[in-house]
Every structure is written in C-alpha cells, then in structure tokens.
C-alpha cells in the first residue's frame, strides 16, 4: 500500500511540476507609480528560473532518456556561461563601487548574494538528478554504465592501467607548488587534480596540480565482455595512478577541482585605434581574469581547499562542493550515442516546395527565379537552411550575373560553407563585403580568424562599430538582369550557422522587394562607411528607429482600445527586460489591449498583476528545439502589422546593437505568421505559464484533451507544405 501511495505522489508531482523560483518580487504598494521596483522582476534571477525550466526537461519522464542526459549537459553549460558573464559582471560592478539600483531595486552586491545562493541550489540539484535518477536509468535502460576504478575486475584494472601508461601518462605535467615553483596558472573551466603529498619523515605537506588533458576522451571505454557499454571517467583513472607521477612521495589525497573565470572584461572602445586589436587584447586578459567560482569534490581535504582559496583569492561564498562527477557538460558525448528508442525521432528538415531542384520539379530554376515569383518565408529547422539560405549564398557565388554579395556574420560554424561560398565569390571577381562582429561573446577568436581568412581572399571585411554590436542577420545580392540591377535579400532572426540551424527555430525572409533592397543597401553603407543618418523605407533598424517604432506600434493599439476598438499585441522573443517597453505594455493592458507574450527566457515584466497587467499573459516554450525566432504582431484594428527580425525587447537590442526588423506584408506569409503564433499559444505540452510572482507552471492536457506540442505541430505542418 505504501509503495502505491508513493507512486501516486510521484505521478501527481510529475503532472503538476513545481520548480524552485529564484525571483523574489516585493509587494506592490497602493498607489505605486510605473517606476516602482515592485513592478519589475530581477533579470539575473529570472535567467536562473529559465534554466530551472531547462533542467526540468532532464527530470521529465516523458522526455527520452538520452535527451534527458542532453538536457543535463545543456543546463550545466548554461550555468557555466551565466557564472562567467552575469556573476562576473556583477562582481566587476561591485569592485568598481557601482551602487545604482536595478529596476527591481537591488544593488550589485545584493544581487551577487542572491544569485550565488540560487545558482548553488541549482548546481546541487543538477548533480542530484544525475547521480540519483539518470545514472541508474542509463545502466538499466541504455546499458551504459559509468564505473569507478574500485568497481573494476582485476583484468579490467590491468587493461586500464596499461592504457594509462601508454596514452595518458606521457601527456601529464605535474606542477609542484613550493618556494621555487609559484602557484600555476589554471585555465578557465578546466578540470584539475589537487594532489596532497608528503615526503617521508616530514611533517609539512606538499601540493601539486595535475591538469586533466583535454585531448583525450572524457569517458574511457572498458572491455566488459557483454553488451553493456562500460566507461570510466578519465580523471578517475588518473587519480588511481597518480602515485606514478611522484615516485618517492606519499600521496595523502587527490581531489578534483574546476574554476570559472570572469568573462565580463570591457574596454573603452572610444579609445581603441583598432577594434580587432582591442578584442584580441581583451581575450588575452580574459584568460587571466579573476576566478568567480571554484567547484570541488565534496570530500576535499580542508588544507588543500584553504590553499586553493588563498591562491585564487576566493571566500566561502565562491565555493561549490559537488557530490559525484564535476563538469556534467561531458554528458553531451553520452547523449550523442545512437540508441534507438532513447532519443527524439530524428527530424530531417524539409525542402519548401518552391525550392525543389531539378528532378523534383518540371524544370530547374535558379533561386533568383523562384524569389522573383514572390517572397519566401523559411522556418528553420522545420525547413532546410541548406536548401534555402545556404543555397542563396552558394548560387550567388557561382552565378556570373551576380555582381555583389554583402553579409553580416555574428556567429558561424567551424567549417562554414557560407564563408567558403563568400571566398569563392571574391576569387571569381565579385565584390564581396562582410561585417564580421568581433564582439560576439565567446566567438571573438573564431570571428577574428574568419575575418583574416576572408581578407586574405580579397573580401572587404569590417569588424563592427564602436560602441555597438552588429546583431542584424542580413544578406544582400546584387544581380544583373537584362538591362537593370536587382537586389535580393535575406533578413532573418538567426545566425548564418548551418549547425545551429538544425536545433534553433528561426525565420527568414527571402525577397527582391526594391524598397527592402534599398534599405539593406543603406544598412551596409552604415555598417561599412560613414552614414549614421540613413533613411529606411520599410526596415526598422536599431539603434536609430527601432525603439521609437515599437513605441508607435504599441501606442496605436492603446489608441484603438481607448476608442472601444480591439487592441491586440502578440510577440515572440528570447527575453524581455527593457523597462520602457514594459511600461508601455502595462499602459496598454490598462487601456484594455489584449497582450500575449511568448518569451523563452527571462522576463522583467510581471503578468496578471492587478491594476497593471491583468490583460497580459506570458508563456515560455522549452522543447527539443531552442525557440530563437522573434515575431511581432500588432492587430491594427483588423489590418494587422507583422514583423520578424533579430531583436528582442531588451535594452541591449534596442539601444546598444545594430538590429534589423522587416515587415511581413504578403497575405500568404502573414497567414503563416498568424498560424505559428496561434499554435504556440495553444501548446499544452512544452509551454509554461508565468504568474504574477514570477513563478511558472507547466501546462498539461486536461482530462480528455489532446496533447498539443507546438514543435510537433510545426514539424507536421512543414511536411504538409512540402508535399502539397
């Protein structure tokens, strides 16, 4: 009977998941004005709540097992980046004596305390799920076993010890710490063993550090003689053989540790003579930036811990004691194993019917012929990036009638076919200009290298604008057709990255609209030359006019509602934190405008707040694909206005970046946008409803109701469109 009750309780818990809530809003006092801190949620804590929703995918029994393992890795990777960027940034503010309050009324030091406490809770929970839920399930259902050295049979130990001596031992570099050997440099996010040693007949202990090599597999296969896949973590094998590195010394302990450094290094761009050189210098500084987190194994020797804390200039609040394996981003490798039934069914992006090649249609057409018949809207990864955007750039590179190709590159893949096509175009004598953004966080080194390669091929390369990141996703091609030049454009919501195009949902417009071509031409003149006061006919560009344009669009809905007409706003984005936009949305709600927001990540706005946001609803969709597209819908009293583009409703997108938003005006494409938004709002499988206190509840189908997964619906629709 007790087992039955326990099972029922577990089932009920899964039906109504209750996640921890990091944000802690204050009560809204009577008569609070629009600037009152109680009307806004903390951005940093809100981001942690988003990562809780990601972590829940690893807890959800409806998710295939290896995908649950992948979500553990994603959550751990997200948290690493958060600590580097956000905790690092707050610490920088604290050190600089910054005391201004966040919109929710908190100083940097108060936020650091809250964030560290909540991040530690998340890190403990990640380990708990891995140790207690996923490890046993991997062994039971996937026949994947992670072993410790002590669990191995004698023959297996001998085989692994032999592997250690042949493959690992020669690559290790033990670094002693004593008066003749200073404490070594520890690289960011690297795993190391802290070794406590003692010379025979000496009382004082010695310390050495051994870095776990990154050019070896993290999971080493063990011969088991059966169908089971048996692995041992490389650090476990090194630990058990560590005495071989220190002959004549007594090993008193070997403990794993990992550091996280501050990635929030900022220089004064106004004083930089060369942005590329400035970023290169910043990358060098980031390697040696202060440590903001130290992860250690739970049973670490206190003397060793104190030594690490002193050498790395840390206090107790910076220490995370981990039960089990450190750095669960290594779980990506396990999740990638091909075991049928334990992963999402593979999705192959479909080719939109207009873009079929010869053999699939009656005659072969160039992509320019196809676009000339009418604008195309492509939705990745449901529709193929390679058959649309990549094809556009590659055909342009090889088409003798193409004169010019211009493109922005914010992030791109390691072996980018897009970059190869641009190089090929330049080598064929076309004029090719590329804006390579060197300030794309964590992609700076890669982008600088791509810029160098492009320059060497004869491409005109610009490296961004001082004080602004170029985040716009735009490409343009000028083609000679008969006696005129026609401009073809792609304006999208995502990067020109063939790998992320398979897992990020993004929209792109392919068009030869002359007015959009004029606008994109002017945008590139702004990016590569001196043209800060450009005029645009259709494109909404940040930082020049995007903010004011959104104000006008929201105000128009307010005006309709105040006249008793319908006011309607639907917006889909990654995050929402711009206070001035939020104020206008509160005002719109008070005027009677119905507002639905689909915000994957954090939101400073508090929905369903009495007297302020009772007409605002916020959902977050978390699933197998990362929701990345930005869509903006304004009802306009029955004549809707719709836009897609690169910008979220965040201060950085509206004021600190170059962004491009394009209107969708063709009725057929508008119908598709409306369909996407409606399906997202109807989701009862992946969607989480946000409440006024900042907490979220995952939607579940009601009794007798059919499950509606937004992403499954989009895959089904893509197939239908492809075979019509």
Automatic annotation (TrEMBL):
Polyphosphate kinase C-terminal domain boundaries: 366-531, 539-707
Polyphosphate kinase middle domain ranges (all copies): 155-334
Alphabetic keyword roster: ATP-binding, Kinase, Magnesium, Metal-binding, Nucleotide-binding, Phosphoprotein, Transferase
Domain Polyphosphate kinase N-terminal, first and last residues per copy: 40-141
Active site location: 471
Enzyme class: transferase
Record field: catalytic activity: [phosphate](n) + ATP = [phosphate](n+1) + ADP
InterPro entries linked: PP_kinase, PP_kinase_C_1, PP_kinase_middle, PP_kinase_middle_dom_sf, PPK_C_dom2, PPK_N_dom, PPK_N_dom_sf
Binding residues for ATP: 78, 504, 600, 628
Highest taxon, organism lineage: Bacteria
Metal-binding is among the record's keywords: yes
Gene3D superfamilies reported for this sequence: Endonuclease Chain A, Polyphosphate kinase middle domain, Polyphosphate kinase N-terminal domain
Claim: Metal-binding is one of the keywords in the record: yes
Swiss-Prot/TrEMBL cofactor(s): Mg(2+)
Processing and modification events after translation: An intermediate of this reaction is the autophosphorylated ppk in which a phosphate is covalently linked to a histidine residue through a N-P bond.
Residue ranges of the region described as Disordered: 1-35, 693-724
Pfam family, one: PP_kinase_C
One GO location term (cellular component): polyphosphate kinase complex
Known function: Catalyzes the reversible transfer of the terminal phosphate of ATP to form a long-chain polyphosphate (polyP).
PANTHER family documented for this protein: POLYPHOSPHATE KINASE (PTHR30218)
Family: Belongs to the polyphosphate kinase 1 (PPK1) family.
Protein name according to UniProt: Polyphosphate kinase
Organism: Halalkalibaculum roseum
């Amino acid at each position: 009977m007790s087992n039955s009750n326990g099972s029922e309780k577990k089932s009920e818990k899964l039906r109504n998941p209750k996640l921890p809530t990091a944000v802690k809003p204050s009560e809204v006092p009577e008569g609070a004005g629009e600037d009152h801190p109680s009307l806004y949620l903390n951005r940093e804590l809100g981001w942690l709540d988003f990562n809780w929703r990601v972590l829940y995918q690893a807890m959800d029994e409806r998710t295939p097992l290896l995908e649950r393992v992948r979500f553990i890795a994603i959550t751990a990777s997200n948290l690493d980046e958060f600590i580097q960027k956000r905790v690092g940034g707050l610490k920088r503010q604290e050190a600089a004596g910054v005391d201004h309050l966040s919109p929710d009324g908190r100083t940097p030091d108060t936020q650091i305390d809250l964030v560290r406490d909540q991040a530690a809770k998340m890190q403990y929970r990640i380990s708990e799920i891995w140790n207690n839920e996923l490890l046993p399930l991997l062994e039971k259902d996937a026949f994947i076993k992670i072993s410790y050295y002590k669990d191995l049979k004698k023959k297996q130990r001998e085989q692994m010890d032999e592997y250690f001596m042949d493959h690992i031992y020669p690559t290790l570099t033990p670094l002693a710490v004593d008066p003749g050997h200073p404490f070594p440099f520890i690289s960011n996010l690297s795993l190391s063993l802290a070794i406590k040693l003692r010379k025979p007949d000496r009382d004082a202990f010695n310390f050495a550090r051994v870095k776990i090599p990154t050019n070896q597999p993290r999971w080493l296969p063990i011969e088991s003689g059966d169908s089971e896949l048996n692995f041992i973590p490389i650090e476990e094998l090194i630990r058990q053989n560590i005495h071989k590195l220190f002959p004549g010394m007594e090993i008193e302990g070997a403990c794993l540790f990992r550091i996280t450094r501050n990635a929030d290094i900022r220089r004064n761009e106004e004083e930089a003579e060369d942005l590329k050189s400035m970023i290169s210098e910043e990358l060098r500084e980031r390697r040696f930036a202060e440590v903001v987190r130290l992860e250690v194994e739970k049973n670490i020797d206190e003397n060793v811990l104190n030594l690490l804390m002193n050498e790395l200039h840390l206090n107790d609040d910076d220490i995370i004691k981990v039960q089990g394996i450190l750095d669960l981003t290594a779980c990506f490798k396990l999740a990638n194993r091909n075991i049928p039934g334990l992963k999402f069914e593979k999705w192959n992006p479909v080719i939109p019917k207009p873009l079929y090649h010869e053999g699939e249609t009656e005659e072969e057409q160039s992509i320019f012929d196809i676009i000339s018949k009418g604008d195309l809207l492509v939705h990745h990864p449901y529709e193929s990036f390679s058959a649309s955007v990549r094809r556009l750039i590659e055909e342009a590179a090889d088409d003798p009638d193409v004169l010019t190709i211009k493109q922005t590159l914010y992030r791109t893949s390691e072996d980018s076919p897009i970059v190869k096509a641009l190089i090929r175009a330049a080598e064929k004598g076309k004029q090719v200009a590329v804006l390579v953004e060197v300030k794309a966080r964590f992609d700076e080194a890669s982008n600088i290298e791509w810029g160098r390669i492009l320059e060497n091929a004869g491409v005109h390369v610009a490296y961004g604008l001082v004080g602004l990141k170029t985040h716009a996703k735009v490409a343009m091609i000028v083609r000679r057709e008969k006696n005129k030049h026609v401009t073809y454009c792609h304006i999208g919501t995502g990067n020109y990255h063939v790998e992320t195009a398979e897992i990020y949902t993004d929209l792109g417009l392919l068009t030869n609209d002359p007015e959009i071509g004029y606008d994109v031409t002017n945008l590139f003149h702004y990016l590569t030359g001196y043209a800060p006061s450009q005029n645009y006919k259709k494109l909404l560009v940040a930082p020049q006019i995007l903010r004011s344009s959104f104000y006008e669009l929201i105000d128009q809905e307010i005006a309709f509602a105040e006249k008793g007409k319908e006011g309607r706003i639907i917006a889909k984005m990654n995050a929402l934190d711009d206070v001035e936009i939020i104020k206008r949305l509160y005002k719109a709600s008070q005027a009677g405008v119905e507002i639905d927001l689909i915000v994957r990540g954090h939101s400073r706005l508090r929905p369903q707040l009495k007297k302020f946001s009772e007409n605002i609803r916020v959902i977050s969709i978390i699933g197998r694909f990362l929701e990345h597209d930005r869509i903006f819908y304004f009802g306009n009293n029955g004549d809707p206005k719709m836009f897609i583009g690169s910008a979220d409703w965040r201060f950085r997108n509206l004021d600190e970046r170059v962004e491009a938003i394009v209107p969708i005006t063709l009725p057929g494409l508008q119908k598709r946008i409306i369909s996407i938004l409606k399906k997202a709002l109807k989701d009862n499988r992946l969607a989480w409803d946000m409440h006024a206190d900042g907490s979220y509840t995952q939607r579940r189908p009601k009794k007798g109701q059919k499950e509606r997964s937004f992403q499954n619906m989009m895959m089904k629709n893509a197939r239908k469109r492809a075979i019509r």
